[in-house]
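User: Here's a structure from my thesis project, written as structure tokens. My advisor, Dr. K., wants to see whether a designed sequence matches the one we expressed. Can you design one independently, without my sequence as a hint?
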């Protein structure tokens, strides 16, 4: 009888290990978006832009640009997400080095609600994103400020690494 009691924890552990992949896969279920979902997202972003009072212009079916502090902030709407970002420096104008990357990592840590990185073209950006259903006018304005202020900080940090400061 003692031998069976020693196997009980082993049986439970094996059962957990076997069922774990199925539990993880269950979380990866995606839903298909409909044209109505996309239209609703675009309508909400248009409303946020208009209500914010920010000067903006439409650049695509679901993209806009806000001019802020001499920088163009891209606003893009997905089915249920919003991305705001600013290109701080283009690749050809930066001398990328370990020192620059270290500064950017520290900056990324210091910024709240915004992130710093290199995009697919290796341009330096500051951006934020959020689920559109969670964004109201106050949150939208805060996101604009977070990205704008982060871009100013990033510009100051990278200035010594720019070919044309």
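Assistant: Designed independently from the structure alone:
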């Amino acid at each position: 009888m003692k031998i069976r009691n020693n196997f009980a924890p082993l049986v439970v552990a094996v059962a957990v290990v076997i069922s774990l992949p199925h539990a993880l896969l269950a979380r990866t279920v995606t839903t298909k978006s409909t044209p109505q979902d996309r239209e609703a997202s675009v309508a909400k972003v248009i409303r946020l832009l208009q209500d914010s009072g920010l000067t903006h212009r439409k650049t695509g079916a679901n993209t806009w640009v806000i001019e802020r502090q001499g920088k163009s902030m891209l606003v893009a709407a997905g089915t249920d997400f919003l991305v705001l970002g600013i290109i701080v420096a283009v690749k050809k104008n930066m001398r990328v080095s370990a020192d620059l990357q270290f500064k950017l990592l520290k900056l990324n840590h210091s910024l709240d609600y915004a992130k710093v990185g290199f995009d697919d073209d290796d341009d330096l950006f500051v951006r934020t994103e959020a689920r559109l259903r969670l964004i109201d006018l106050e949150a939208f304005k805060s996101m604009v400020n977070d990205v704008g202020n982060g871009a100013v900080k990033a510009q100051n940090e990278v200035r010594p690494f720019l070919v044309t400061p």
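When you compare it with your expressed construct, this may help: The first strand starts at residue 56 and ends at 60.
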